[in-house]
Fold:
Amino acid sequence: DILGDVLHLVDDRPLRGFGYWAFWAQPEVATLIASTQNSAHNGLLEVALGLGVFGVLLFALTCGLAIVGIARLVWQRRFDALSCWWAVVLMALLAFNVTESFVLWNSYVWALLVAASVVGWRDQTRTERALALTESTTACGPISVSSSTSARASS
Structure:
């Protein structure tokens, strides 16, 4: 069982891990794991194996930012097409991460996860600024030209 073997090996170096792809590059990996695959087949375990607890915390932070940001985006936009698309992409990425190890690969899947962790927050701040601007102009009422300015303009 590859997951059990990887969990056992993560316990050997829990803080820093083995290094970025350093574990799978070792020739004796075949004797340590009962699999010919060069992957833990779980993104979180792959990060723990390669980068240890610090990498897992960074990965969890990225996933947490993505989940909260996309949830805020969907809630604020009232389920429009773009926010729902990002929500579906994020759910697919997180589900894919349970069965495959894409986190440490240089791939479009990792790029999509990073983009999902940014897009909800980026759009949120832009929308908050726009709402604050509209609220401040409506709170002051319509802008009117004073009589002294209009008198100067007519002369």
Remarks:
- The two ends are 90 Å apart (CA to CA).
- The longest helix spans residues 43-77.
- The helical segments are 2-12, 29-32, 43-77, 81-99, 108-140, 147-154.
